[in-house]
Automatic annotation (TrEMBL):
UniProt-recorded name of the protein: Endoribonuclease YbeY
E.C. code: 3.1.-.-
Keyword rRNA processing: yes
SUPFAM superfamilies: Metalloproteases ('zincins'), catalytic domain (SSF55486)
Sequence similarity: Belongs to the endoribonuclease YbeY family.
Gene: ybeY
Superkingdom as given in the UniProt entry: Bacteria
Gene3D superfamilies: Metalloproteases ('zincins'), catalytic domain
Native source species: Erythrobacter litoralis
Cofactor note: Binds 1 zinc ion.
Keywords: Cytoplasm, Endonuclease, Hydrolase, Metal-binding, Nuclease, Ribosome biogenesis, rRNA processing, Zinc
InterPro entries to which the protein is assigned, alphabetical: MetalPrtase_cat_dom_sf_prd, YbeY, YbeY_CS
Names of the cofactor(s): Zn(2+)
GO CC terms: cytoplasm
PANTHER family: ENDORIBONUCLEASE YBEY, CHLOROPLASTIC
């Protein structure tokens, strides 16, 4: 997966490397994300920017931790041949203030929480969701937990056993 990273108003850190590690881990647990043709833009930005995007594109007048904007339907992604030109999977935007507050509340580092949100956003771009049923939410959470475990990051949802560990 090719990543186009834009960092605006985030503290110093190797956010590009973190995003690459998160994308690699996501591709190991959701094989459809391992296609080298895929391109994703990741925006590390302010609450204000994410608030504006959330209001404009989702009709929600508040900031949120991560937004995902898919450019492919899941069937297109699953049918994507491994050879050919790059294909834009979609865009992800992370809000610094919300991410910082959530990380602190969870007792996690900003880096670990951002990695979780990048994995979460990538899974959304791949067509996974968590809003329609408990089973759907549990399946997506299991993928997130497994991807984060590959990065050495603890289960962000609690003390559940890590799948594949």
């Amino acid at each position: 997966m090719q990543l186009d990273i834009d960092i605006d108003e985030w503290p110093a850190g190797d956010w590009e490397a973190l995003a690459a590690r998160a994308a690699g881990a996501a591709g190991k647990v959701a094989r459809e994300l391992a296609n080298a043709r895929l391109a994703v833009s990741v925006l590390f930005t302010s609450n204000e920017e994410v608030h504006e995007l959330n209001r404009e594109w989702r009709g929600r007048d508040k900031p949120t931790n991560v937004l995902s904007f898919p450019m492919l339907e899941r069937a297109e992604l699953l049918g994507l041949a491994p050879d050919g030109p790059p294909v834009l999977l979609g865009d992800i935007a992370l809000a610094l203030g919300v991410c910082m507050r959530e990380a602190e509340a969870k007792g996690a580092s900003l880096e670990a929480h951002a990695a979780h949100l990048i994995v979460h956003g990538l899974l959304h771009l791949a067509g996974h969701d968590h809003v329609d049923s408990d089973e759907q939410a549990e399946a997506m959470e299991a993928l997130e937990i497994a991807a984060l475990a590959k990065m050495g990051i603890a289960d962000p949802y609690g003390d559940r056993e890590t799948p594949g560990a």
